[in-house]
Amino acid sequence: MNRALALLSCLSAAMSLAGCATPRDRITSALVEAGVPRAPAECFSADITTRLSDAELRAIGTAVAQVREQGRSLTLADALELARDSGDARTAGILLTAAARCA
Q1: Is 75:9 a contact under the CB 8 Å cutoff?
Q2: CA atoms 40, 46, 51, 56: torsion sign
Q3: Domain residue spans in the chain?
Q4: For a Cys-Cys bond, which of 47, 59, 66, 86 suits 98, CB 3.0-4.6 Å?
């Protein structure tokens, strides 16, 4: 489960990376830079970028950034709560599925 937590906590960094890379590449790179092994990072980024829209990915990144601005690390429970509180059960399900499958 630690990998799942790392995958979710690094998502906001991935959302803010600049360059010509695809969202999938940016998310994978940010996760790897944060210490997640390449295979789980690629698995997670592939899952969420094929199933979530750019707007949904940006919304997750914004929510994660708000948690980090409070000086907290994002946990899996935080991420699911943010998705649930937004009324977006679909996104919460996608994050949970990807984290569990790729951990």
Answers
A1: yes
A2: positive
A3: 2-102
A4: 47
